User: Fold these one by one.
Assistant:
Number 1:
Amino acid sequence: MLNLTFLKNNLVAAINTAMKAVPTRTSLPILECFLLEAKYDTVTLTANDMEMAVKTTVDAEVEENGHIAVDAKVFSEIVRKLPEDEVNISVTENLQVRITSGKAHFEIAGKDGEDFVDMPIMEKGTPVVVSQMTLKDIIEETIFSIAPNENNKMMTGELFEINNNVLRVAALDGHRIAIRYSVLPDFYERKAVIVPGKTLNDISRILSGDASKTVNIYMGRNNILFEFDKTQLMSRLIEGEYFRINQMISDNYETKLVFNRRELLDCIERSVLLVRESDKKPLILDIRDGGTVLSLNSVIGSMKEELEPEKEGKDLLIGFNPRFLSDALRAVSDEKVNLYLSNSRAPGYIRDDEGTYIYLILPVNFVAR
Amino acid sequence: MLNLTFLKNNLVAAINTAMKAVPTRTSLPILECFLLEAKYDTVTLTANDMEMAVKTTVDAEVEENGHIAVDAKVFSEIVRKLPEDEVNISVTENLQVRITSGKAHFEIAGKDGEDFVDMPIMEKGTPVVVSQMTLKDIIEETIFSIAPNENNKMMTGELFEINNNVLRVAALDGHRIAIRYSVLPDFYERKAVIVPGKTLNDISRILSGDASKTVNIYMGRNNILFEFDKTQLMSRLIEGEYFRINQMISDNYETKLVFNRRELLDCIERSVLLVRESDKKPLILDIRDGGTVLSLNSVIGSMKEELEPEKEGKDLLIGFNPRFLSDALRAVSDEKVNLYLSNSRAPGYIRDDEGTYIYLILPVNFVAR
């Protein structure tokens, strides 16, 4: 039967990656396991929660090829705490898994690898190639705009759209839209899929963010596959056609403000202290030539602060959910940000001159005092 | 009315200290407040949850003496996020509290300071003087042995006993006892009180742990007062006479083991991975001349590891709750630890030769296999 020797750190790294696809609750107990498959000098760990599957390989001394399923949580906790750099894993005929490191010996029950639900097979075609850094950044800079609940399935995912050499990623929740554009090294045919938010959160945590490493993305009909380093991550796609975001976005404006981003963000984060989770008090911007006064009144108290952005165009009084503003401002790293406005009932846009991001936020009605 | 100017960092430090006595839930809304009392060039912050009260002073420019109560949580969140180093606080005639820093202005509702329930007054007498480091350490090294629930009120507190120049602190939960001795610079009459565990947890978090700074402890009939730095912390005592721990402790033993503490602790922490919160699987020590085998069997799996402590006396097979052993071993910093045993039904003792600590742990019955 199986007899494998690992370097502990390598095995722990593989466990950390595969763990993302282990479901916390499931009606199918085998899914709480990792599948370990040994072949020549590598072992592949697979986890699958039926929405997403992860496969990652780790170097090992393999005495005999084979496979076994082990409880992912127990296995991972034990391996992490082992005393020595070297870890030996062997399997007895009755599927007991023996884990040995130095003088420490553990034995846990394994399960037949045949019962494991493996990652689906996918026809790969040509991959879209992006850097790990780009993919990680683009996810983190948009993911907060997806809807948290499942009332509208489409809103819980993100649009991934390739057009020539541009990757566009968009998320919206009915109150705001986040869009990021990234220029790719190569050109591709147009393709658009909707990727579940959970998948994107998981992959952004696994990705190293290294600009010199790449990810191959294969977009299938029902699945998307990300290949990078020693890892494959496959996820179901959300079916259907995404919202027509081009029609929601306008280039027109009547007022343009240029803020110091940090100053604006700090002021907004202070205002949020007066807003309890449940209520929706708007932050009101009173925009005039002399300066912009931001104010908020709630049951907790009131705040007022004057900033001095560069201003072009009309004076305006407009209210926003301050959390939506701060989410967008945190996703930007520029020193200066532009806020484009038309009137108190039209969306505000935070967008840069280079066209790498657009954050659209709907205003909130309020009673002027 | 009140008009105060603080350095933000000083005010934040005082808030952090006083916050410990703000109740999370209370039927008396005024207790969710800090009382701010301004007098000449200092402001005193007071919080009181009726079990424990904290007073701490902070330097300030005071334009007029007076007092006001403000919601502790809201006040603390706002002050922390203020933009500048200087913070001005003023109170209007209708008890609105204005907080200003740079261009940021906040206003929250205050409450009449007269309604605040102040710290009780106590006849002080002579204090017991200990270093902040000693008090902090002695609490952290015993507090884990108090009982978590209120079934037996006395077990939720710790014995603080002064005898001549020795401070003895003890905690027990019916399965184990933790005792620490500390030699004080001065001599005192015998005194013993039972201090609530919550108070001790809070004070250990406020104390700096500085060996050169002292704490004055005043032990009253119903209350205990700790004075240190710019802070007074007063707590109710638990009424009654503490368990007679001297009678529970014995110096006799039939087996003595000397372990490398880190090695033993690591092995025990690995064994705990196989024990779910709810079940009480013992860690079994099979003690022989050649070595001690530690093993544990649970529904999750089994482990076995051999250590080679120095051994004196009889062979023995004995079982312990591994979490109790690891709690005690973590509270010790010595490189070597002594474990004294008599038989499989008698308590085990972890104690040092110098008599600074005793950890008594009752063994667990088990079926030898």
Number 2:
Amino acid sequence: MAFWNLNSLELEAFRPGINSRAELGEQLIMAYMEIAAGEEDSGHLHPYDQCGVVMAGRIEMFIGSERKLLSPSQTYFIPAGEPHGWKTFDEPATLLDISSRQPGA
Amino acid sequence: MAFWNLNSLELEAFRPGINSRAELGEQLIMAYMEIAAGEEDSGHLHPYDQCGVVMAGRIEMFIGSERKLLSPSQTYFIPAGEPHGWKTFDEPATLLDISSRQPGA
């Protein structure tokens, strides 16, 4: 679908604590994600770039040695291979997240 | 830079009518763009995916045969090779725009 309205987009269960909707292109994956309060990814890395913007709520992220509490209109850019993770607090956070597709994925 | 605050990000002249700031990764280019009122790109295409979200203002876009007036929290996804263009009206529009880097670019 060419256009989404994030205010009315229907999401599906992606994994526990995360609902999402994704659009897959040849090279990009665009995903809208709603992460529940009190969730955490303590850290991982992958060989492709990832970036995005917080649309609602708050989420703490770390990328390499940088750590920041992000609010709406704040963006993140995770270079390929860089360790990163995130944590939500007392409210859900919604993100528009874009990844480069892994070769062969 | 790992994190941007779009409300205070300093932009640079990109081309007439567009100020922007870009982050280049290995596979992704993330750009924040402010397009002036009354600007138009009547259409073009390229061999890589592009997507993004409107953060402020309004912009009309077409992607293939679909045309839509986009407001904040509305997204677009332009598959590789699909003709697309845009037009602003009486106010500037700001976008967070993500492209896959062209091989060799």
